[in-house]
Every structure is written in C-alpha cells, then in structure tokens.
Amino acid sequence: MRSRSNSGVRLDGFGRLVQQTILRHQDAVTGLLPASADHQDAWVRDNVYSILAVWALGLAYRKNADRDEDKAKAYELEQSVVKLMRGLLQCMMRQVEKVEAFKYSQSTRDCLHAKYNTHTCATVVGDHEWGHLQMDATSLYLLMLAQMTASGLHIIHSLDEVNFIQNLVFYIEAAYKTADFGIWERGDKTNQGITELNASSVGMAKAALEALDELDLFGAKGGPQSVIWVLSDEVQHCQSILHSMLPRASTSKEVDASVLSVISYPAFAVEDRELVEITKQEIITKLQGRYGCCRFLRDGYRTPKEDPKRLYYEPAELKLFENIECEWPLFWAYLMIDGIFSGNMEQVQEYREALEGVLIKGKNGVRLLPELYSVPPDKVDEEYRNPHTVDRIPMGKLPHMWGQSLYILGCLMAEGFLAPGEIDPLNRRFATVPKPDVVVQVCILAETEEIKAILQKEGVDVETVTDVYPIRVQPARILSHIYARLGRNKQMSLTGRPYRHMGVLGTSKLYKIRKSIFTFTPQFIDQQQFYLALDNKMIVEMLRTDLSYLCSRWRMTGRPTITFPISHTMLDETSSSVHPTVLAMLQKLQDGYFGGARIQTGKLSELLTTSCRTHLSFMDPGPEGKVFGKSYRLSSGSFEKLDAEEWLHGLQVAEDEDTDDEVAQYLDHLLQRTTPQSNLPPTTQRGGLSRFRAAVHTTRDLMSLASKAKDLHVQNVGMYVPSRIFQASQQSVKLLSSPHQHDFDGKSHAPYAEMNLPRDEDGNVDCKALVNQLCICPTLQEQADILYMLYILKGPEWHTGLDSEPGPTVKELLTELYVRVGETRQWALIRYISGILKKKVEALDEACTDLLSHQKHLTVGLPPEPREKTISTPIPYEELVRLIDEASEKNLSVSILTQEIMVYLAMYIRTQPALFAEMFRIRIGLIIQVMATELAHSLHCSAGEATENLMNLSPSDMKSLLYHILSGKEFGVERSVRSVDSSLTTAVSICDMGAVGTTRPERTGLVRLKSEIKQQLDKRRQSLPGISVVLVLSAQSAGHTELLGKDSFSSMLEGQGSKDSRQGQWQRRRRLDGALNRVPVGFYQKVWKVLQKCHGLSVEGFVLPSSTTREMTPGEMKFAVHVESVLNRVPQPEYRQLLVEAILVLTMLVDMEVHTIGGIIAVEKILHIANDLFYEEQKALGADEHMLERDPSTGICSLLYDSAPSGRFGTMTYLSKSVALYVYDFLPADGCSMQ
Q1: I need a surface site. Which of 361, 554, 791, 793 has the fewest CB within 10 A?
Q2: Which domain holds residue 263?
C-alpha cells in the first residue's frame, strides 16, 4: 500500500475539520444546513457560504489526489455541495409565484423568503414576520451556482430549472433600484423594519448577473436552450449605483463591513481599484477592533445594552451602542482571502495569525470560529471610557459556520492547495484590471434615397436601410419584444422578462437570429415612445450622452456599434437640407471625435468584423421546429387576434415554412402593431368649429374645455383639464391659470351659449356629429378639442365609426394626432396629448433611481404635504407614475412635465453632479414653478403668457432652462415666428448669454449686423444701466430686431457693503435657492451642534428635537434629510431661505463658550424679530409704506426679502441682532453687544 503524501495527510486534517464543523449538520434528505444546533432554520446566505469550504476541499482533493480513495472523497464532497445547492433550489422553486410577482412589483410582500425549514424545504415564518427581502442572498446563490457550474459541477438538471434560474435573473436585475433589508436582515440601522438601498445587495447582484451571462447551466453537455441571458444595461445600472454609493454602505450606514464581500471575494463587483482600497481602508479604520470588525457603527446586536425582548430599537437608544459594538472574526476571514487574491502575503499572514488568536478549542481539539465577541456587562462603562481596551467574551453560534467555512477556504488557499483561478473559474478577480480604450463605431443610414442624396450633397456618404441588406435594421422596441420571451414557462406560470426598454449597451451589439444578422437603432430616436425624440437638438444631446456612456461602460468583446438612421424628421422645414444641428453632429462624427468619445464611422458591412456580435440561440427552433413555445399556433387571422407579446410567446413554425421568412414575418407584424395607422382626416380650411367652439385660439385654450365638460356634467374634470397646474406660492407664476375664471356656480351661462355643441333629439351631445366635424377642422388644435371631448364622454376605446364601422377608436385617433402634432412641433399640444395617452417615459424609473443613488431625495407636486410627495427609495415605474399623478392632482400636463424634468435632472446628475452640491432633496414641483417665474421675468410678460411659453418650449430648450436654473447662469430668450396650420405662431427658445450678455446667434451668425448691434447695445445700456440686453432676431423677417432686457443672476457672495442696484435680484435668488433646497457648505453639521445645546428647533410649529443627535451622527445623510424635511414644511421658498439664514446665525453661537442656548428655539420668531427691527429702522430712515409692504402670508417685508445678506442693511445684520435678543439670557456676561 502506497504511503500518503504530506499534502494528502494535511487534506485529511481539513476533511475532519469540515466534517465536524459543517457536514455533520447537513440534512440527509434536503441537504440543507441549519444555522446552529439551537437554530434549525436554514438561511439561504449562510448555507451558500457554509458550503464553500466543502466545495473548496473537493476541488483540492481532485487536484491533489494521489490514490483512488482521494478521488472518491472529492466526488463525495462535490455531491454534498450539489445536494445543498439543489435543496436551496427546491426551496425557491416552491415559491415560483413570488418570483413571477416580484418581477413586476419589487415589493416586500412578493419576495422570496430568506430562510426555510431544514428538513422539509418549507417556509418557516410568514411573509410579513421577517425581513425576507434580501437581494444579496439570492444573488449570492446565483453567483456561486455559476462558479460551481463553471468548475464542473452539474447542479441544474432540467429545462424547467433553467427557466426558473432565468427568471431569478429577472428577479435580481432590479437590485439597483430595490430597497431591501440587507445582509443583516434589519434594513435601516435603527432596526425598525425600514428597507433601504444597500451597497452589499447591489454589488452582489451585479456580480451574479455578470457571472451568469451566456453561461450554459448544463455545462459541456448543454445546448442553446440551457444558456442564461443577461442584459448588459442592467449590469451597468448596478455598477453605476454601486460606484456612487461606496464607500458609504447605505443611507443610514456610513460604513459596513459586509461591503468586503462586494469589493473582494466572492463578488469582485467594483472595477475601480482606488475605490476598492478607499472602501477597505474605511472599514479597517472605523470598524476593526481586537477581535474582528464590528458590522457597522452603533450596531446594537448582542450588546449588553440591547433589550432582547423588543424586536425594534427606540431611535434615541442607538447612542448607547456607540463604542461597545460586537466584533465579528468573520471579517478577518474575508480580509485573509482578500490578501490571497490581491497577492498581499503580509495581509494574509496578519489576519491568519489574528484568526488563530480568536479561535476556540472544542471537543477533540477542533478549533472553532465563534460568531462574535461582546463586551461583558460589567465592563461596559470602562469600554465607553477607553474603547478597545476591555477583554471581550465569545457569544452567539459556535461554530459560526459562515465564518468557519471562509476560514477553512482561506487556509486551503494560503497553504497552496488551491489557486485563485480554481475557486474563481469565471475570473471575476480581474475586475479591476484596466480596460483598453473604447472606439465607438457609428453607422449612419438614410431612411430613403432622397435623404441619401441630400446627405451626399453635404459631403456625408451613407447607405440606405435597404442598401445594407442582408443585415436587417429594426427599432429598439423590437429587441425588447424578443427578450420578453426569455424564461417563459407555461407549466410554472412564468411569463418571461417584463417588457422594458433597451439601453444603449443592448442596442450597440449586432445580433444573429437564425441565419440573419440584425442591428437595432437606439431607443432614444424612437418617436413613438416619448416626445423627446421629436426634437432634433434633443436627439443630438442624447446621442452625445450615450457615446460618452459607452466609452466608460463598455466591457464586452468587440466594439460597440450604433446604427443611426437619418429620417425625414431630421430635415429642416423645407425638407431640402438636413437640420443644422444634425448636420453639425454628422460632421463631428466623421471627424472621429464627439461627446468625448473616439468615433469610427463607416458602412455597416465594413464595421461588421470588429463589432460585438451575439447569437440569440433562444430564438433557434427546437427539436420539433417549435420556435416560440407551444401555447399558440399560427392561423389565419392571428395577426389581428394576438398582440405583439402574444405573437412572441406563441408563434409556431409550420413544417413547410422557412424559418428565416418566419422571423421576418414576425418582426414585420411587430412593426405593424406598434406603428399607428392613418385614420384621422387631414385638417382643412373649410368652415370650422365656430358654432360650438369657444372663441379662444391659443394652445393653452385647452383650458376652456373645462367649462364645456362642466356643461356636459362630466365628472372629475380636474383629471383632464384643471383650471391651473399648480397653486403657486406667493409672488410666483401660477402655471396654466386661465386669465378669465368662469364661475361655474353662478347663473351666467354666456360662455356655454357660444359653444353650441351638437345635440341629438334627446338633448344629449351628438358624438357622431362631433366625429363628422373632424373632417372639416381647420387646425390640429380643433381636432384635439373634439377628440378630447370624445375621450372624456365615451372613453379611449370607443369606436368612432370614422370612414367605416366600427372604425378607429378614440385612442387610435389621438395616437395619430400625436404623430401629426409632432411633425408641427407644437410642444404644448404634444405634451398634453402625451398626458392623455399616458405615454410611457421609458427611462423614468431609471432616472428616478439615478437621482436617488446619488443620495438625493425627490419630491413631486408643490408644498406643503400631503400634496407634495417624497420619493426616498426606488420604486417600480407604475407606482412612480401613480405617485406623480397623485401629486399633480390628476393634472395631465403637470404630470408629464414632471416626468420630463425628472429625466433631465438625471441626465445632469450623471454628467455634472456638481450642480447638485449641498442639495439632498430635489423638489421638482418648486423647480417647475421657478422655471415659469424666471421665464415671466425674462419675457416681461404675465403669468398666463409665461405658462403658455413654458409649455411650448421644445425639450432641448426646457432642458437648457433647467440647466440655467440649477447653475445660476444667465440665459436669454429668443422669440421667433413660424407658420403652423397656416397661421403665425410665436415661439420662444432659451439661449446662452456670453460674457457681455449676448446670445449665441449674435456671436456667430450676425456678422453683417455687427455695427448695428453695437449701436443698439450701447444705446440700450446707456438708457438702462445694470440691465443685460439680449438682441433677438425674428426667424421669419430678416433684418427685424427686438431688444429684450433681462435682469441677470449675480453671485450669492457680494463684497461687504456692496449696493444692489437691481431690484428684485435677491428675492429671486432666495426663491431660487429655496426651491432648490440649497444650503451653505457644512450647514447640517452645524445644525447638529446647535441641537446639542438646546432642546430643539421649531420651524412653523414643526420641531426638530435634540434627541435626533442621539440617533444620528453629524455626517449622516439621514440627518441632513431629516433637517430638510422640517424646513420643507414651509411652502414659500424665499421665506424658507430666510429661515435657513436665521439658523445659520444661530450656528455661530456653537463656537462660543455657551453650555446651553435655551429650550426649543422658534426660528420663525427670530426671523420676525429681525423683520420688526428692519421695519422700524427703514421707517426711521424715511421709507414709505409702499416700500415696506408686508407679504400677507408671512408678514415679512418685501424689501427684506430683497436685501443682500451682508452690508449695513443686510439680512445677516438684523438676524444677528435678533438672535442676540432671543438668547440674551444664555449668553456670557461679556458676550455680544448690540450695535
């Protein structure tokens, strides 16, 4: 008999350790592991981590086997792993209905359970009796399933199981926007059952998605049907959110040791090496102790001060846990393994020795790793005084199988039994290796031969869509339909992937489907999805953003390829040349550099060899020729009976049918179903609606429909056309308010008499006659009026009988009208029809998540609560839209504009996060109100006109106006006149101001008028000192100029004693900063210190108690949000800003030697004392009553609102005096003296 080698003997020692600490607890039937002898439930996360040592030992035996007995041990260990992984799979498959529901809801009520019965795989607690939603646990299972499959284990046995795993991918791909209870099952660190977005969950999900992408779950024996598919855009969403969160772990946890599993083994989810090191050092510096690392600061779990009888903590008791948090040796095991993967042997040695020092000897000399070390109850006070000096005692599970497993894994690797590549066969450890520069390929296509000829005249050589055949070009929404089929399983009632829009990473690949190659155009140019694509300037901006995104996020083999079609909508108004903005973009693309990206343009056939290509094998026919499933069969009339998704899920190939033609047929059907048919008659100049239309003719006169609807006794008129968008605050524009409000309760019916709505014999409105009027409408506006009336009277699905029976529905006609209005660029009408049709802003939930992931909360609607709704965690699209509609008080125009602004805010926070400095809550309702106010000021027009102009701004101008509001930069407004429906319409656009107050056209295209411009500017400046002048040229009449004066923004910081010569400047600045929630740097930390010296701060009756400091730390984002929530109770933004200034003066007392400054301080009282001092002093100086007029809602002088902060008569001067008076009794004897 051959003697054992040293490695064999050592492995046998590890085998005994694994058997006695882990495998002896494994259930013989299910393969699951209980948490401990006292806790018989099987946690998903603990089970996966606990089995890693068994898997690693099996790999080590397989590698180092020197006799058949060792090979048998390897097989036995590996099958123990398979048994456990299949046991967990059975637990989850029994909850398949939850997986299906969670894909759409992301709700805690629909999530998979976190723990199961060890012996039966059944659930052990109710849905609401535990913090079950733990995305990291499900993600960890999938990640290790991928790694184990890649190592050669066969865990998945059937296609039903493959489909279930595919649906688990859909389950976790929304992790970047799903607030969960996290790895510690407690959620928010206050332990009150509040979910939050956790970096550990997002990172583990990202790792699992990357590991499973295009992995065959049957291993070498698999085929096309057993491959798992992951969309690259979902991975990058997780990456973006994770990068923006770290080193912070969540909103309530500034640092958490669980993030070690994300930045190192097993996830390796972070690609930035510097961020990895920063996060690791943050954990070591703040959390490491003598026995391990605590989980997070102020963690009360198993501490002597924790009350085990209560499930939740009281917020103020978190302070009791400071410096006595339990320390977990588990995290030293992570750090030892991290050292092995990073090649840092000193780190490996340091933490291995540290672990040896905290192990506890059990029976037979087995060394066990305890769960945690706690401060003895009688030594708590000593530990408070001198942290990390008291000897601690082991508590909790012994052994802690999770930690024991990682310790054994680390020792196996440290002793050379396993190489990093063997435990990480998918090479995730190379995540931080620098990637090569990305070159983006752009193929420009012409929609028609005519457009191709126009482009060639401009020197742009392109092909048409038909020229690139056999490569097929399709819109992005078709790819969404194709992917919606993934994972569908009728037996388990799994519907596949929810229909979602495709991101730029997905559309930048070429796809092989059967024998054909497909390329898909970007989502943002799909005009049927949302109206942003109707604006050529906006298209160029979105292309620039996408190119920059591709350069930073592309990780796949091959170059990204964008197929960019030039359509007729990208031509100018004469259709004889390309729109100047689009042409400039094409020329920059050909130059090879655009939007910060390196560009390679060319023909699609030339770019094919270097492109990233993916074979969608799930679209291949099965063994019996079945392509899309077995639920439906293709038959005559199927095109009419099935919608697009039913076709995708149900289409079956006939035996004599060519599969390539069938795919083309299917795609043609999808296009047919998603393209509106022409049913609406063209507008005409005959007659009109004068006999039953109110005598109003502007776009905003849609508001007159409210009175018509009232006459028809239509219920809930406000859902469709309320008289105004918002109830604006004091001195702000009232959006969409009608210049003449009709008294519906009065007896005067003169307006109704003008309508003369057609009625039938019974006196009811004759809807058929209304339909007939569509044929003689002179304008699109009048067609919209009629269709709107039909919409509220008959509903969207009413068949109009137009041309034939049953005829198109009202919704179909509105959809066609939307397309026609889009061609005329009547933006207010476009937005309004979009609201009626509930056009889906595809990127809305992603935009919301982007803002939230940058630690910004959102509010929609105008203050105060409950009208103003706060969004603090990512929510599904449908719930988000419902919340916006509710906050908009069912006003369609406001709702759609709110969604539009949210998308723009997300664009800016991704590219220019500095715009949002010191802003923790973005109040979209107030931002829209301020935009209208600023527009009214710039145009010198009434509130009604400003509202009309705001709603008529193009998306690119709306985005530009938002930028100027956020940045505080000056902007100009250009007026132009254009023909719409054979009538002249005034339009406005936003333009940048130069250093001398001139607009871009003036700086670039008006050379021939240079002398005239100079003369007019000089003359205007002489007559209006201090006013910035904008020269505007009408687009229709050459040589005609109009001069518009505009008060410019100036810096918030002016020199001491400087005099403000521009009336209204500081009031506007305060209104702006108040609406944006801007505060000085370090403001919230100073407020925290103020609360330590008083009992609380009161703002308009709402108290911020001093107990908040015992719950939260000064740098905690949660504290800043809490302070903002109190300040946001004030509806007037300029009044709110003065309250901020008053609090800022209070913070100056913190640095004085004052132990207390009173009980609850009423901040508004300080402000009103300052206002009274200001009033009396100004009156003594001769100011008249008109100048000192007070705001009726707040009692503050308008002149105080408009005073600079500094200077002799500055607000800070009077607030300082007021504070001194208010807290006089608490100041030292030699304190401040009033001047």
Answers
A1: 361
A2: 133-287
